């Protein structure tokens, strides 16, 4: 039975070095559950341009793909979690999106970003101006059904707790590596549950 007519389309946004292929398993899972799933490839995907520049690609994709009257749900993985947050918080995406799910995003930076001086990596360093700007009004995400998923066994987001947020619903999954979270059956079930939630004014963080 086709149930997509009463569900928002879902846009999945990948992280650094990755492409939309990273969502192959997750996309198939959501499609089987009845969602209309969309992906895009951020270019370049190696942090040689700033995250705010990449966010304009998300904005352009949304504007070109969906009617202005069509609400969407948004999923950001790793670096894509920050790209999508910039789209939501700075490019007006919060007016288009109803549900936002962040997966293993460096919301407070990662020490591994010091390994490169590329613009996107500099922005992902703890305490960067980019992160300070996004986090100073992160409370605006209360307007969405916002869920963030993370694993304490993340060795790319260092420290792993950097994925935590002061707003939204927290879901901690016991997955043994950053790259495996997007393929984790547990994470996919959590994602499907978050995408099924009724729209509310906002949600309180769970610790």
Automatic annotation (TrEMBL):
Stretches of the chain forming a coiled coil according to its record: none
Keyword Hydrolase: yes
Entry keyword set: Hydrolase
Xref: InterPro entries: AB_hydrolase_fold (IPR029058)
Single annotated GO MF: hydrolase activity
Keyword Hydrolase: yes
Protein name per the record: Alpha/beta fold hydrolase
